[in-house]
Amino acid sequence: MSDETNLTTLPIVPVKRTVLFPGVMMPVTIGRPRSIAAVEAASKSEDKTLLIVAQRQPDLEQPTQTDLYAIGTKAIIKQIGRTPDGQLHTLVQGVDRQVLIKLERLDPFLEGRVRPLSLEGESGAEADALHRAIIDLTGELTKLVQTSGVTEALLSLGMDPDPISLAYRVASLLNLTLAEEQALLEASTREDLLRNVYAALAREVQILQLRNKIASDAQEKIGKTQREYILREQLKAIQRELGEDEDEEGDVAELRRRIREADLPESVKKDAERELARLAKLPPSAGDHQVIRNYLELVLELPWKKSSEDSLELARVRQVLDEDHYGIKEVKERIVEHLAVLKLNPTAKAPILCLVGPPGVGKTSLGQSVARALGRKFERVSLGGVHDEAELRGHRRTYVGAMPGSIIQALRRAGVNNPVVMLDEVDKVGRDFRGDPAAALLEILDPAQNHTFRDHYLDLPFDLSKIMFITTANTLDPISQPLLDRMEVIRLPGYSEQEKFEIAQRYLWPRRVQEAGLKRELVRLSPELLTLVIARYTREAGVRQLEQQLGKLARKIALKIAESPAEQAESAIEITKEEVQEWLGTERFQPEEIRKELPPGVATGLAWTPTGGDVLYVETSLLPGSHDLTLTGQLGEVMQESARAARSYLWSHAEGMGLDISRFKRNGLHIHVPSGAIPKDGPSAGVTMATALASAYTGVPVRRDTAMTGEISLSGLVLPVGGIKEKVLAAHRAGITRVILPKANEKDLKEVPEEVHKAVQFILAERIDDVLRAAIEETGEAAAKKTGQAAAAETVEVL
Fold it and tell me: Are the C-beta atoms of residues 725 and 732 closer than 8 Å to each other?
């Protein structure tokens, strides 16, 4: 232990990510203000010495004593240079090791009390042996290193007779971490220092030897490949001179045999043989070798002439369709019609059906049922979000990673050329700079063109006319007209509550019970509770939400049985209303009910929504002293135009209807449709607005048991609208017994379920006068006087 006389005070310069060893020259770039001040202070001293010490965390800009290593190196400043940006370039030489006892001050630069630290031990046999071993490894390292500056430094090391100086100089040239360098600096004995330097040097030599071996092996492999290519070309030349077949064995021979045995069309066979001849001339290392091989594999796997036999027993087809789906008679009839045609004319082209309807009505699953009924393979291609035309037509083989399109891949998977291919979500096809996939569908779905469809990858005509394409869409608006013309549109409207009840009882509840690991005969859901779930917890056109709610009930029952082993007996479990309300939570929807009283100016209308029909009320109010027409309730442009047309018609026919025309001049008008947070649009509220306005101007209320729908014209005609089935079902749910419809929509009543048809009276109207006569409460002479109807007016047709 040094006494007090060995203590000195030195300026301190912390350095990052490196260590200065005694006897080693090292350049240091200094930019921190404290370090610059320390260098300047040391340069003004007589011996120009300072302490170079490494800091533990390199990201600290102002380290304290705890952030510095306790052992550093005393150094002499040999050279100082200043850059334009204020930094110092210094060249320092290590002198000896120093222990940092205590920092005396922090500003304007670090200065601390230090004492020298010498290496213990004397030169002995072990030290001499390690010295010679380090010299030998240094010579080996010189042979492996290819950098000229490092090589010269290593050559000079072998002439250093001092083992400690040699060790420190070698350590400064190795790729060591900061912790490893600091450990060498802190070595307590000469033997420890030499031993650690020898281990680090040996590891560096081993790494360089391995690196050179890897580089040599890679170069040898490249040379071997080139040599094999030359020898293979020479072999081919010798075989051609001898007249021998150059490649009757291996993969080429196998592909040749498969082409010979495959039942390919003649034009396809010629192209396959031409590609095979190209493949035989290419070495396996050539880039096109695998591309041609993959192409030939695809050609051989495609079902050029292989078809599956259709099940043409119409009775069985009807049975399969009825087993899988309830209702949708039109779709089932269309499938049976096609089979009847195939039975009489096997060469008939398959139809292209487009199933259009809201989500959850069973469009996708219907395609699977059709395939099962026909006895054909089923393949589904999702078009939702497809933006690249190559997804359908494939990529040309000139591109890296080229693949055939999804249609050809579907045929490859199916293994027959007449599967049922479902193109799902055709209305959600995108379009961008990569092309328009909808345009590619024009050829795929056109019976006059798809018998010679050419995929970009395959580049051979393939007959798609035997495929039965079924497309699905939620709406027809995004589909281009040319594409729509190629498809036969079949609409799948929303289900009534009775239809949902049957679907849930036959399909959804048994499936969910089975998925939950329960036995159907041991879990009972009464019809009343099933109706409650349909009416109070779902409101949709399809049955997807209904299936989710039934699945929730099944999981709750499974949890109840799993937690209570006593419940696992073979006794049946009856679900109660209280359990349904507890498991499914608060009822999400309240049943639609008609208003008990309708004041003058309020009429009941019917609307279509993506989740089914709905009942809405049009409310009107006269505003004395105003002349404006105010419309509220988030009404769209079409609905606003219907309101203006209704007001204009009543104003222009006020005299004939017995209305006081001065009321139009003296009063403004406010029309409001409740549920203001929901946007509304469409022309079907025209007759409702006209009726509400007539009621407001005459002061006669509209019948509360009557709802209506239809578009109006400025001349008083009632024009047809869509969604009749959904609207009638909504009126029936609300307890409305009279529905006014346009005369032109009489044909749509055949879609209404029989039980609804019996409970609702339908009134068909051709003009607004017919609507007013059927909707206004007063009858007889008073109604004729206030509505302007003659006593001998034509009788409204009632169904």
Answer: no
Statement to judge: residues 487 and 544 lie in one domain: no
Cβ atoms within 10 Å, residue 207? 12
487 and 501 fall within a common domain: no
Please tell me whether 359 is known to bind a ligand. Answer: yes
Confidence of residue 744 (pLDDT cuts 50, 70, 90): very high
Q: Compute the distance between CA of residue 353 and CA of residue 342 in angstroms, rounded to an integer.
A: 16
395 and 466 co-located in one domain: yes
Residue 90: Cβ-neighbour burial (10 angstroms; 0-12, 13-18, 19+): buried
The stretches of 493-619 forming alpha helices (DSSP H) are: 497-503, 509-515, 527-537, 544-563, 577-584
Residues with active-site annotation:
684, 727
Q: Identify the H or E element spanning 422.
A: strand 420-424
Q: Which residues contact 740 (CB under 8 A, 6 or more apart)?
A: 687, 706, 707, 708, 709, 710, 763, 764, 765, 771, 774, 775
What is the domain-level CATH number for residue 514?
1.10.8.60
Is 358 marked within a binding site? Answer: yes
Torsion of CA 52, 55, 60, 64, to 10 degrees: -80
The counts of H helices and E strands in the chain are: 28, 25
Domain identity same for 695 and 631: yes
Identify whether the C-beta of residue 792 lies closer than 8 Å to the C-beta of residue 799.
no
Q: Phi, psi (5° rounding) for residue 459?
A: 55, 35
According to the annotation, is 363 in a ligand binding site?
yes
Q: Which amino acid is at 327?
A: G
CA distance 719 to 766: 8
Residues 6+ away with beta carbon under 8 Å from 652: none
Domains in the chain, number: 5
Domain that holds residue 350: 314-491
Amino acid at 251: D
Q: What is the pLDDT of residue 794?
A: 39
362 annotated ligand binder: yes
- Paired strand residues for 79: 91
**Quick check: 138 pLDDT over 90?**
no
Task: Tell me if 145 is assigned to a ligand binding site.
Answer: no
% of the chain residues with pLDDT over 70: 90
Note whether 459 and 510 are same-domain residues.
no
Distances in Å between the alpha carbon of 94 and those of 6, 26, 135, 169, 190? 18, 8, 22, 11, 18
Phi, psi of 403 (to 5 degrees): -140, 155
Check whether residue 575 and residue 695 sit in a common domain. no
